[in-house]
Amino acid sequence: MLLHPGLQRPLRIVADENIPFAREAFRGVGVVRPLPADQITPATVRNCDVLLVRSVTRVDAALLEGSRVQFVGSATSGIDHVDLAYLQKRGIAFAHAPGANADAVVEYVLAALLELAVRRDVSLRGQVAGIVGCGHIGGRLARRLPALGLEVLCCDPPLAEQTGRTDFVPLETILAEADIVTLHVPLTRTGPHATYHLIDAAALARLRPSAWLLNTSRGAVVDGRALLKARRQGRPEAVVLDVWENEPAPDPELVARVDLATPHIAGHSYDGKVRATLMLAEALARHLNLSLRADDSELLQPQPGDRLDLIPPDPRLSETHWLAELVRQMYDIAADDARFRIVMQNGSPERRAERFLELRRTYPRRRSFSVHRIDRAFVPEPLQEAVAVGLGVQLVAAETVAQ
């Protein structure tokens, strides 16, 4: 390999095999050894210099004690799977990828809302969405939902304290007034704004019975047992869960009782994964004082098999059904739900956990909405803002689509 001139030897890099293009991104820095998450063990990381993980790998003393690891990168926004205090004690540098998959999670939420609306034959327009956690993901969602006709309420006490913003509302207001409650908080167990079981039995009781609840943050933000009990009683009206307590072996009864269930893949867009990989490569370069700038222009170009030109839905459809048909061409959340339910139906907890991880490992390539395009002439005028701003799809001239 052609080694970067600032290095004396190639670094040994162990990477979760679900981190795409690690070899390309870390070219010139070291030799990448991709491994399945369940094979990232004390033995396999003992002699590596750099460890690259995703959220399924717990990074702590049990994994790293006695190893030569000097840099840990997590291709995720959340970091609750990493013992930061231990890394600091050992002098191990750490980086993650906040915001890399934010658009993917937003698009998952949009697909889920449209799927629920179609199933219930209701409109999203005029509904009140309560966003709990308004950082990289929640903030983007708050900017896009109004283009789809929704009113937005935001709750984020830590961000309110940091910024002094006065436009946030308390969680109690969200629970009492929102038709849709969507969670985008980190998992924290201590402190004045701990989020562990933030949505517990009491919070669920305060939700409007007709509310829709979505969780794409961390499973333990919602008390799974309390939610299961509420669902047995028919509350809330709809639930979408991408994250679960006791992952990768969630309660199969809870899976069966929610409207849309997926195996922690909301942020698994191809584009988000590539950006996360490149963010880690840049962070390692900074750590090593190397002049390396990762370039995503080639990796984010259309790939073989991508179908980025969208077919205009039937103009006779209602606004909700039209938008849902458009989104299904980019991301069919119902298909993810169906695959997940099949593998969660039977087997021991250990077998279900294997299937959960397999679904994540073999997840098909899903491109960001923003790389798709549609002929503006076939988008009804009242829906152009919803398509361009709400969904983020490119509106182009007919001759551009034809190319």
N→C terminal distance: 38 Å
The H/E string reads: EHEHEHEHEHEHEHHEHEHEHEHHHHEHEH
Q: Over all CA atoms, what is the radius of gyration?
A: 22 Å
Strand content: 5-15%
Number of helices: 17
Sheet having the most strands: 6 strands, parallel
Instruction: Please count the beta strands (DSSP E, at least 2 residues each).
Output: 13
What kind of oligomer do you see?
single chain
Dominant shape: globular
Overall average residue pLDDT: 93
Strand order of the largest sheet: 7-6-8-9-10-11
Structural class: alpha/beta
Helix content range: 25-40%
Uncertain regions spanning at least 5 consecutive residues:
none
In terms of topology, how is this protein built?
Blueprint: E1 11-16, H1 22-25, E2 30-35, H2 42-45, E3 50-53, H3 61-64, E4 71-74, H4 84-90, E5 93-96, H5 102-120, E6 128-132, H6 136-144, E7 151-155, H7 157-163, H8 171-177, E8 180-183, H9 201-206, E9 212-215, H10 224-232, E10 238-241, H11 252-257, E11 260-261, H12 270-287, H13 319-330, H14 333-344, H15 349-361, E12 373-375, H16 384-391, E13 394-396, H17 398-402
Parallel strand pairs: 1-2, 1-3, 3-4, 4-5, 6-7, 6-8, 8-9, 9-10, 10-11, 12-13
Helix pairs in contact: 5-6, 5-13, 14-15
